[in-house]
Amino acid sequence: MLDFLKSYRSLTVSLFFAGLLAGVGCHAQVPAADLANRVSPELARRIEILIREKSSVPAEYSIVLSPKRPSDLPHYDEVDLSFTDGQKSSRPLTFLVSNDGKTLVQLTRYDISKDPKTLVSADNRPGRGGPATAPVTIVLFDDLECPFCARMHAQLFPALTARYGNEVRVVYRDFPLDQHPWAMRAAIDSNCLAAQSGTGYWNLVDYVHAHAGELGGADKSLATANEALDALTLDEGKKQKVDDAVLAACVKKQDAAPIEASKHAAEGLGVEATPALFINGEKLEGAQPIEYVYRMVDSALTAEGIVPPPPVPVAAPAPATPAAAAVKPGAGK
């Protein structure tokens, strides 16, 4: 029996026939080269029996094989397979057939030509830790009202500095969740400050993460939280000697467009919860043990040709706090 990619068994008939849209139409004369490369009737029958068995193709559909063509995989040719009811044909599926006619393979190809570091942008964001030329960059999508983000924030910087010095740079981008009432306000205000002072930005982020539970007052008022955020932003701006008028105008305007763009970028990267870290492009989602971060940073350093510090044992998460130590859109506060 021909070897067959295991995952292909899970495909349903609907997948095969979803593309039955194009009429068969008129056919051009078959070139002589195609005639020479046609799959032999005996091999075509073996392929057809296998496909019908694995995908439960209805009897009214015929299976059509294209002529073979050279593959970039040694010892294999490519062949397209499609289904027809005599009126319409499916989109072709490409298979590889071994030169000895004993193996049929369907491959899923992935493009790994891009450096993962370039997939998540850290451009125009205040950095902390190492310089912009640091071998490892961590881009963290943050929600300033998220308790799990606050937990990760509290442990991340001292741990990374102690272990790696200036070899790791950290950049925050915004992913405020809808269920956090003042998270968007905090993101806008902190970005207003970031436009003039990276130091002021990080001071504000540090404070908000450390005191998030206090910002709404005893009654958890949204208006109180918003007023507190604006005041903290403007006060930090004064400390950093930024242009007060520009900062105040930005805070008053509350332009959410840049934050929405950051959220859109995060969603395009598959972010579903906060915090979400991309360590030279590798994703780690949730407030995971710092040892997990170490392991991924060590791997990134190794890929850059840098010997990381001695490995740190990875502690198992406590049973009471599963990997849901992250806040997802729609979840509770």
Quick summary of this structure?
The chain has 10 helices and 12 strands.
Layout of strands and helices, then pairs:
Layout: H1 13-17, E1 22-23, H2 32-36, H3 41-55, E2 62-65, E3 69-70, E4 76-84, E5 88-89, E6 93-98, E7 104-105, E8 127-129, E9 136-142, H4 147-164, E10 168-174, H5 183-194, H6 198-211, H7 222-239, H8 244-253, H9 257-268, E11 276-279, E12 282-285, H10 290-303
Parallel strand pairs: 9-10
Antiparallel strand pairs: 1-5, 2-4, 3-4, 4-6, 6-7, 8-10, 9-11, 11-12
Helix pairs in contact: 5-6, 5-7, 6-7, 7-8
Provide an overview of this structure.
The chain is α+β, with helices and mostly antiparallel strands. It folds into two domains: 6-105, no CATH class; 116-303, Glutaredoxin (3-Layer(aba) Sandwich). The protein is 37% helix and 16% strand. It has helices at residues 13-17, 32-36, 41-55, 147-164, 183-194, 198-211, 222-239, 244-253, 257-268, 290-303, and strands at 22-23, 62-65, 69-70, 76-84, 88-89, 93-98, 104-105, 127-129, 136-142, 168-174, 276-279, 282-285. The strands form three sheets. Strands 2, 3, 4, 6 and 7 form a five-stranded antiparallel beta sheet that branches. α5 runs antiparallel to α6 and α7 runs antiparallel to α8 (244-253).
Q: What's the CATH class of the largest domain, please?
A: Alpha Beta
- Specify the CATH architecture of the largest domain: 3-Layer(aba) Sandwich
Total number of beta strands:
12
- Uncertain spans, ≥5 residues at pLDDT below 50? 1-30, 320-324
How would you sum up the global shape? elongated
Mean pLDDT across every amino acid position: 86
The third-level CATH topology of the largest domain is: Glutaredoxin
Contiguous helical run count: 10
Distance between the termini: 55 Å
Topology order in helix (H) and strand (E) letters: HEHHEEEEEEEEHEHHHHHEEH
Query: Helicity level, as a percent range?
Result: 25-40%
> How would you sum up the major sheet?
5 strands, antiparallel
Number of domains: 2
What's the alpha carbon Rg, rounded to whole Å? 28 Å
CATH superfamily membership of the largest domain: Glutaredoxin
* Structural class computed from helices and strand pairing: alpha+beta
Beta-strand portion reads 15-25%
